[in-house]
Amino acid sequence: AAPDTVRVILDLAPDTEPLYSRDFSGVCAFRPLVLAIGSERGWSGRERSLFRSHGYAPCSLGKRILRTETAATAACAIALAASGLLEGNQ
């Protein structure tokens, strides 16, 4: 991924901030966004460490485990809304 790419790993770990609280201004329109979305089993400690070592910020969609396809749809919608790209003036 390009150096200016915003990297996010969706995770249920206790130290994650909610995805909706991230500042996504400029993302999607000017900067690429990569969302790492795992299976319902969650990430292993090794996988978490690997993502963090590559600049991925951990974020959460909440305490409930979502199906992968639901998590992907929700995460994209949240990121688009937070970036301002879903507003009528775009």
Can you describe what's shown?
By secondary structure, the chain is an alpha/beta fold. It contains 2 helices and 4 strands, in the order βββαβα. The chain has helices spanning 45-53, 68-83; strands spanning 6-10, 17-18, 33-36, 57-60. A 4-stranded parallel beta sheet has the order 2-4-1-3, sandwiched between helices. The longest helix is centred in the last third of the chain and has 16 residues, at 68-83. It is globular and about 35 Å long. The protein starts with 5 loop residues before the first strand and ends in a 7-residue tail after the last helix.
Number of helices: 2
The percent range for helix content is: 25-40%
The radius of gyration computed from the alpha-carbon positions, rounded to a whole number of angstroms, is: 13 Å
What series of H and E elements makes up the topology?
Answer: EEEHEH
Mean pLDDT: 85
Question: What's the β-strand tally?
Answer: 4
Structural class: alpha/beta
Order of neighbouring strands in the sheet with most strands: 2-4-1-3
Please report which band the strand proportion falls in: under 5%, 5-15%, 15-25%, 25-35%, 35-45% or over 45%: 15-25%
The global form is globular
Distance between the termini: 26 Å
Low-confidence stretches: none
Q: Main beta sheet, described?
A: 4 strands, parallel
Write the layout of secondary structure elements.
Elements: E1 6-10, E2 17-18, E3 33-36, H1 45-53, E4 57-60, H2 68-83
Parallel strand pairs: 1-3, 1-4, 2-4
Brief synopsis:
The chain is of the alpha/beta class and 90 residues long. The protein has two helices and four strands, in the order E-E-E-H-E-H. A four-stranded parallel beta sheet has the order 2-4-1-3, sandwiched between helices.
